[in-house]
Design goal:
The protein is α/β, with parallel strands linked by helices and 205 residues long. Helices cover 42% and strands 19% of the residues.
Length: 205
C-alpha cells in the first residue's frame, strides 16, 4: 500500500527522532521511557523497594525503567490488552484492565500489597474520529484514577497520560478534588506538537 504524504512525514520524523535513536542505542523498548525518566528525576516517584503498577504497559519502556529504579526489593506489575515480551524483574499480565477479570488478575498479582505508584500510559485504539477517541481516552484515564484512589498507599503517587481538549478540564478537576496535590508535566521526550501531557497526583495521607 502506498504511504500518504502525512504518514511518510510521520515515519521520517519518527526515524530521525533523537529519543527514538537513543532508545535503540540504550536498549529501551520505546522512547516513552525517557518521559517517565524525566518525570521521575524531578519528582522521585520510583523509590528503591517501591510497589509499582503499570497500566497499559506495552511495549514495556515504562516497565523497564520502573524495574531498574525500584530495584530487586521492589515489585512491578504490568498489564496490557496487547502482548508484551517479558521484562526481567516484572510480572506481566496480558489482560483487559477495564474488565473484572483483568482487575482480579491484577489483585492476585499484587498479593495484598498496596501500590506506592500507579502509572497509566494507556491509550485507546484510535478510530480516527477525534471526539470519540478523546472520550475513550478519558474513560480509560477515569478507570485508572479510580483504581489508584482505591488501591494506592496513603502518600502514593498516580501518574496518568491525558490529552488536551474536550474532557481535560473536568478530569483535571476530578483529580484536584480527590488527591492532595496535582501537578502537570510535559517532559522533553513528549513531542512538542503532541497534545499529550501527564498529570501527577499524590494521594492524601
Amino acid at each position: 500500500m502506498k504511504r500518504t504524504k502525512s504518514s511518510r512525514q510521520w515515519l521520517d520524523r519518527h526515524v530521525n527522532d533523537p529519543f527514538v535513536q537513543k532508545a535503540k542505542r540504550e536498549g529501551w523498548r520505546s522512547r516513552a521511557a525517557f518521559k517517565l525518566a524525566e518525570i521521575d528525576d524531578r519528582d522521585r516517584l520510583l523509590a528503591p523497594g517501591a510497589v509499582v503498577v503499570d497500566l497499559g504497559a506495552a511495549p514495556g519502556g515504562w516497565t523497564q525503567l520502573a524495574v531498574k529504579r525500584v530495584g530487586a526489593r521492589g515489585k512491578v506489575v504490568a498489564i496490557d490488552l496487547l502482548p508484551m515480551e517479558p521484562v526481567p524483574g516484572a510480572t506481566f499480565l496480558q489482560a483487559d484492565f477495564a474488565s473484572n477479570e483483568g482487575l482480579a488478575r491484577l489483585e492476585e498479582a499484587l498479593a495484598g500489597l498496596a501500590p506506592d505508584v500507579v502509572l497509566s500510559d494507556m491509550a485507546p485504539n484510535l478510530s480516527g474520529i477525534a471526539i470519540s477517541d478523546q472520550a475513550r481516552a478519558y474513560a480509560l484515564a477515569e478507570l485508572a484514577r479510580d483504581f489508584a484512589l482505591e488501591r494506592l498507599k496513603p502518600g502514593g503517587v498516580f501518574l496518568v497520560k491525558v490529552f488536551q481538549g474536550s474532557g481535560q478540564q473536568e478530569f483535571h478537576q476530578s483529580l484536584k478534588q480527590a488527591f492532595a496535590k496535582v501537578s502537570v508535566r510535559k517532559p522533553a521526550a513528549s513531542r512538542g506538537e503532541s497534545a499529550e501531557q501527564y498529570l501527577l497526583a499524590v494521594k492524601g495521607a
